């Protein structure tokens, strides 16, 4: 599970070097304490890094490079589209900590509330100005973090929700 995700992640960065079209797809990550969103932490977890209920995984797509044609001139080069996955209120049914009112079975070993999110995104490398090498390194590193933006969230039980700044409910 974690081992395979690590292996695929590292192989992806190598593949980007040899398959240029993959450079239009940037994996990103976001972390928000689930309690801030009215959700439950993963049960059990020992540290914040084990709390998968707080983590969202994203693939940011440079749509401007992919569509081409006359539509290209209407899109800013820093605007991207992201597709994300989140699973809140994760728990292990064998632990006795799962509440069927909060979590639903995802598999035999895991219960939770999975969601698919489609959101606008920013390419910080193009949005932020160039500068000294340390600044350029910093903005490239920041580009792997998904910052809040307008989004549509599709939940497991069919409920769709719009967010002005995902994952925070403003209304």
β-strand percent reads 25-35%
Backbone shape: globular
Share of helix among residues? 10-25%
Listing every helix as H and every strand as E from the N terminus to the C terminus, the arrangement reads HEEHEEEHHEE
Q: Sheet bearing the most strands, described?
A: 7 strands, antiparallel
The separation of the N and C termini measures: 37 Å
Total domains, how many?
1
Radius of gyration: 18 Å
Number of strands: 7
Structural class: alpha+beta
Task: Compute the average pLDDT.
Answer: 88
Runs in which pLDDT lies below 50 for 5 or more consecutive residues are: none
The number of helical elements comes to 4
Task: Tell me briefly what this model is.
The protein is an alpha+beta fold. The chain has four helices and seven strands.
Give the SSE layout:
Layout (H helix, E strand, L loop, with lengths): L1 H17 L6 E7 L23 E7 L1 H5 L11 E13 L12 E2 L5 E12 L1 H4 L5 H10 L6 E7 L4 E7 L5
Antiparallel strand pairs: 1-2, 2-3, 3-5, 4-5, 5-6, 6-7
Search tags:
alpha+beta, globular, 171 residues, 7-stranded antiparallel beta sheet
Please tell me about this protein's structure:
The chain is 21% helix and 32% strand. The chain has helices at 2-18, 63-67, 124-127, 133-142, and strands spanning 25-31, 55-61, 79-91, 104-105, 111-122, 149-155, 160-166. The radius of gyration is 18 Å and the shape is globular. The chain is of the alpha+beta class and 171 residues long. The chain is built from 4 helices and 7 strands; from the N terminus they run H-E-E-H-E-E-E-H-H-E-E.
């Amino acid at each position: 599970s974690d081992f395979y995700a690590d292996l695929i992640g590292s192989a992806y960065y190598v593949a980007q070097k040899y398959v240029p079209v993959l450079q239009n797809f940037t994996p990103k990550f976001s972390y928000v304490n689930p309690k801030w969103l009215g959700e439950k932490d993963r049960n059990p977890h020992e540290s914040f890094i084990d709390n998968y209920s707080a983590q969202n995984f994203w693939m940011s797509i440079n749509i401007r490079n992919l569509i081409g044609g006359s539509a290209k001139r209407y899109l800013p080069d820093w605007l991207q589209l992201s597709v994300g996955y989140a699973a809140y209120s994760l728990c292990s049914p064998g632990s006795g900590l799962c509440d069927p009112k909060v979590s639903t079975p995802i598999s035999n070993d895991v219960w939770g509330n999975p969601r698919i999110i489609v959101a606008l995104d920013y390419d910080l490398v193009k949005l932020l100005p160039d500068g000294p090498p340390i600044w350029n390194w910093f903005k490239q590193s920041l580009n792997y973090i998904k910052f809040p933006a307008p989004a549509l969230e599709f939940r497991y039980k069919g409920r769709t929700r719009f967010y002005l700044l995902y994952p925070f409910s403003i209304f």
